[in-house]
Design goal:
Length: 133
C-alpha cells in the first residue's frame, strides 16, 4: 500500500490490527500500531488489541505502556478498552488496580457487566482471595 503511494486510513489499520491480534503476531502488531500513531490515526480498538496481545503473552509492562499511551493520546476509553485494562491488571494479580479501574469505569458511565465481574472473579481466584471472589 505504502509502496504504491496510498496512505492507510482507519479501516486499513483496523483490519491489520485485527489480523495481527487474531494471529497473536506481536512484532507486526507493534509495527502497525506505531505506524498508525505516526499517521495521526488514533482509535480505541487498536489500543485494546495491543493490551490484549501483551496480556496474553504476559508482557505486562508493555501492556502498561499502551495504557499510558491511551492517556497521552487522550483516548476516551470505550467498554472494550475498560475490559481489557481490567483484565490486564487482574491477570497480573494487581487487584487493587483492577478495583480502581472498575470504579473509574463506573465514573465514566460504564456499568460493569458480566464480563467485568468474571474478570474480577478470575483475578481474585488467582490471588487465592476466595472470600472476595
Amino acid at each position: 500500500m505504502l509502496d504504491s503511494g496510498v496512505a492507510p486510513n482507519d479501516a486499513s489499520f483496523s483490519m491489520l490490527m485485527g489480523l495481527y491480534r487474531k494471529g497473536w503476531n506481536i512484532e507486526e502488531a507493534e509495527f502497525t500500531f506505531y505506524q498508525m500513531r505516526q499517521f495521526g490515526i488514533l482509535f480505541e480498538p487498536a489500543y485494546s488489541g495491543m493490551i490484549t496481545i501483551y496480556t496474553r503473552f504476559r508482557l505486562y509492562e508493555k501492556a502498561e505502556d499502551i495504557i499510558s499511551l491511551m492517556r497521552e493520546d487522550k483516548i476516551v476509553p470505550n467498554m472494550e478498552n475498560w475490559l481489557v485494562i481490567l483484565n490486564a491488571y487482574s491477570q497480573q494479580g494487581r487487584l487493587r488496580d483492577a478495583e480502581k479501574v472498575l470504579v473509574s469505569m463506573q465514573e465514566a458511565g460504564f456499568s460493569p457487566n458480566i464480563v467485568a465481574y468474571n474478570i474480577m472473579i478470575t483475578g481474585y481466584g488467582k490471588a487465592s482471595n476466595m472470600d472476595t471472589a
